Amino acid sequence: MASDQYPEHSDEVEEFDLAQLDDEYEEAPVEEREFDDVPDGKYQVKVEKAELTHSQTSGNPMLKWTLKILGPKYAGRFLWRNNVITRDSLKWLKTDLHTCGVVLSKLSELQSRLGDLLDITLEVTKRTKGENESIYINRRIVIDESTREVEDSALAAF
Prior knowledge:
Elements: H1 22-27, E1 41-54, E2 61-69, E3 78-84, H2 90-99, H3 110-113, E4 121-129, E5 132-141, H4 145-155
Antiparallel strand pairs: 1-2, 1-4, 2-3, 4-5
């Protein structure tokens, strides 16, 4: 069903007349964007994304973590941790999952439990050796909202 507002999908590519901006485009400078690497150290992060994918180098299955730094310094920047899944690395993956509170009886449950990793707050350590950056999960940080409310009300008199 088509309407004037939402035309039916077409395989034709809509063409835009951008030629009028060709000269300006040619003269426009390219702005250099340099971001300093996040330095080695400990960071509080939130798990933004957890996905199963394949390692580009080995083709092995891999759990890819996207971690957003909470701050105060480098807030909003991202770190990435990759758990390449092999027989030799299972202990590291299992330790990371347990640290996050995700306990699996079988590894095959991981795909359906990835959502349990989202929005978890962690303390991680970033270490660089040569060209290689490693992210280590130290501990889970649990923020108890009921305790926070009590602490806030106790300080209200001050």
